[in-house]
Amino acid sequence: MGLTTAQRAAIQNNWATVNANMQEMGDALFMRYLLANPGDIQFFPKFASAGVGAQLRSNEAFQEQTLTVFQFLGQIVAKLADLDAAGKMLQERVHSHKPRGITMAQFERLLDLLPRFLQENAGAHGPCADAWRVAIANLMPYMRSEFKKC
């Protein structure tokens, strides 16, 4: 399936908006995720004791985690011209996350939120949101295959 040049450009241009306010974007996406999946806070021992709620946004460990994730997503966005390279980066994340009990379903829930979140918070409307969905659909199989292997 792949991404067209226009789709890659739309995602990368949209990421510039995200990059300008990366901490806030990361915090907001993870708050949305954790509010929808409150039990998953257990996978974040550095801030799990803070509990899910508004207080989490001021937690330094939470902010560090969300920034780390968004910086990694920025690396993926930069590699979209080579989906295989981007996919291999995601496979490495499987190796670091699966031993901690994180499942493919959890990755999917987070990534499923991303296009809508970017529409609402970073101007990823119409073809850009669709491009995000296509990119995620192209990258998920790399992660799924790696989950099956390890």
TrEMBL record:
Pfam families for the chain: Globin
SUPFAM superfamilies: Globin-like
Domain of life: Eukaryota
Keyword Oxidoreductase (UniProt): no
Keyword terms: Heme, Iron, Metal-binding, Oxygen transport, Transport
Domain Globin: 2-148
GO MF annotation, one: heme binding
Family: Belongs to the globin family.
Listed name of the protein: Globin domain-containing protein
